[in-house]
Amino acid sequence: MEKFAKLKELIAGVEADADKFYNAGNGAAGTRVRKAMQDLKTLAQEIRTEVTEKKNSDK
């Protein structure tokens, strides 16, 4: 559950940069959004692995 909370925090943290990129055309903000999306992808994969391991260990 700790990683899931971190995932939500990361999304909330990138929201301002996403707004700057999409609504103001700020290219640097777009770079920060891309990095955050990569971090989200990595964290999401870690959560998927953790869930699979927990699910399989309950059997």
From TrEMBL:
Domain of life: Bacteria
Function in brief: Might have a role analogous to that of eukaryotic histone proteins.
Record-given protein name: Histone H1
Organism: Pedobacter cryoconitis
Family designation: Belongs to the histone H1/H5 family. HCT subfamily.
Short name of one Pfam family: Hc1
Listed GO MF terms: DNA binding; structural constituent of chromatin
